[in-house]
Structures are given as structure tokens and as C-alpha cells.
Amino acid sequence: xxxxxxERRSRLKRxxxxxxxxxxxxxxxxxxxxxxxxxxxxxQRHELYYARSRAAAGTIxxxxxxxxxxRISPYFGFMRTPGLPLTSIVDPERQxxxxxxxxxxxxxxxxxxxxxxxxxxxxxxxxxxxKAFVIGIFGGSxxxxxxxxxxxxxxxxxxxxxEFRKRNILLLNFASGGYKQPQQLLLLNxxxxxxxxxxxxxxxxxxxxxxLAQINxxxxxxxxxxxxxxMAPLANLASLNPNGETSxxxxxxxxxxxxxxxxxxxxxxxxxxxSFAIDELRENVLVRRSEKLAQALGTAQRGESLxxxxxxxxxxxxxxxxxxxxxxxxxxxxxxxxxxxxxLRYLHVVQPNQYFSHKAFSGEEAKIALSPDSVYRKYVEIGxxxxxxxxxxxxxxxxxxxxxxxxxxxxxxxIYSDNCCHYNQRGNDKLAKAVASxxxxxxxxxxxx
Length: 449
Prior knowledge:
By secondary structure, this protein is α/β, with parallel strands linked by helices. The strands form two sheets. Strands 4-3-5-6-7 form a five-stranded parallel beta sheet, with helices on both faces.
């Protein structure tokens, strides 16, 4: 039987009310979602979405899509792609941990220069503006972040003394993530050969020479080679006989990077914060996918490659890591010899690390800094005592060494920004004071016994 006429009429009368209710519900949900997106944007970036800063001509400047953010360097092993904004290297959450109490750090606008190093200057910087006193910072990512974050603290500590009060001090960053000896030695000689003026060199290292060198050995590669964590993906990209799986992964990675570039170019033009948030969510999914593909490409070197990585001897020596520590010490001596021949000063800083520390970690900092599953932990615990044992011979050879491994032992506040090795602004400021004191010939930092 059909629906009675009176009931049909009743339904038709109720239909507009139902439609209005549905429309109002959808509108309310959309408004609520938009307000939530605005709040999220403000929480992450400390500005209102609708009043956000825009790039010139209403367009968002995005870097060209790249397979990976590292390139082969014929002299240094690898380097970051020039022109990368720091925001494409470090996500907002990690930036927040690095900055600690600093709301808008001065370093967040820096890009990689012509050699892929995070710096406001291309290299070589000649002539040096204003005849500045130039301090070159060398090392891995800890040294890189020191150069960016501790620049003002170090300069202020030096300028508080008569020797530097009227000097124009300029810090240049020659450090990069994953670099380890002999890369610092190679960079120093390379840029000196190009005519780069330096007055003082500070080399901050130890962690990479311990942990990354051991990872090289585990992968069957000489510890004298650049980090396999960075080189293996590049070697696989340059494979002479790529298999089907590798080719598919490369094709997928290329497509993901292209979609990321398209999203980066369009999301900033969204009128609604909700649209921006959806684009950013899609972007995060693609970033995780690209990282997974890049990791798969870098897990093992597949066959022959255009990039040759010196293997460890077969069979590997029982104390293979001893080569890494001898190399670390010898490279530092050579840096000292090179600079002293030019009557330039050199400071070698052995960096602190949370896995070789007597620091009392708060519960909050322990969640950030300590991981029982860290691939680096065991290497640091075994290797750092060997670094310390090499310091007296280095000093006997005339190398000025600052043992900073105990620097944070008495620090109660949060210092570490991740479970690897990096410090926040507070930690870098404290390290800057110790470095300045060592440069000025002051009392050495308390050393580990």
C-alpha cells in the first residue's frame, strides 16, 4: 500500500525544518572545525591565521622538489642541498624543543648556503666585512646548532673582556649534521685553500666519531668514511645495477616529493584555516611516507654503486673501533698543525652527551632525552671513556682541548632537546660560556674523573 495522502503532506511540511536543522548543524560543525584550526595554527606559530605573514606577490616560496635533502660532495662526502630553509630540515615541534623559552629565535629564518651549510653567508666569505674577528665552528649537528643558537651568547661572553670589547666578532658555521672526522679536517683545509679568512677555529665533536663510526663498522664500512646513515641512501641512488624494488621505491619517492612540493606551494593560499590544516595533515602523511621510502633506500647498499665506500678489512680487526679514535685524535692534531702554521688559534671541544652523564634528569627531561632503545646509547657508554683517554696525549701534542663532558652534570633544568645528543637554547648558552672561557684562557670546565 502507498503512503496515505495526509502523511505525505505532513512529511512535506516537516522537510524544510529538517533541512534547516541539518544545514545549521553542518554550519555549526564547520565553524567549530574552523575555530579549532585557527587555534591550532596560533598555538604552533604564535600568530592569527588570517593575519599571517605572506610571501611577496601572494605566493609561497617553496624549494624545488628533491629526492632527498642531501647531495654528494666530491670533497666532504655529502652535503645538504643549497637553499633549503631551516623549516624544511626541522619540524615545528623540534624547533620548539630546541628554542626552549625563546619564542621567536633569530636562527629560524636561516637557509643552507652555497655549500649546504646553515649560514647567513655564502662561502668563502672574502673579504670579511668590517675586518671582523672570524670564528669558524666545525663539527657535526651539535656544533651546527651551537653556531646557530649560541652565537649571541658566545659573542656577548667574549665582548665582556677587554681583549674583545671593541672587536667586531663574526661566527661562521662550517658544521653539518652527520659530519665527523676527517670531514672537519677536510673542510678546514678546503676553505683555507679557497681563501677563507679565519682567526679562531672551534671544533665541537666526539659523539659522531663514537656512535656514527661504530655504525659504519657494523655496516661493514670503514669508520674513516662519512656516516653510512647519510651515505647509504646516496650510494643506493647511484646504484650501477638497481633492482626492481629499488626502482619502484625511487619512483614512489619522486612522486611523493612532487606532491609535497605542490602542497607546499598551494596550502599557504587557502582562505580558511581548516583548509590549511587539512593540507598540512596531508603533508605530514606524505612526509612520513617519504621518510619511510628514504629509510628503505638507505638500509643496505644494494650491489655496486658509482659511490665507493671503503669497506672494513676482512676479517675485521677485533678492536676495529680503535681506528676511529686514532683517526679522531690525529685529525684534531692536523687541524692544530695547520692553524698554528698560520699563527691561528684552535680549540677542540669534546661535547657532552646524556648517555655519559651524572646529570639528574627530571621526569619531563628524561622522556625527551633518554631512550633505552637508542641505537647510540651503547656506543656512547663504551666509547666516551676512550675519548677521554685520548685527551692527555692530545694536550701533550699542543692541542687546546676543552673536556665539556661533565658540563651539565650539576644542571637541574632541562638541557637536552632529543634522545640523541642535541641541546636546547639553555644548554647551548651554557656551553657558549664554557667555550668563551676556554678561548680566553680562563679556568677550565670541571672535568670528569
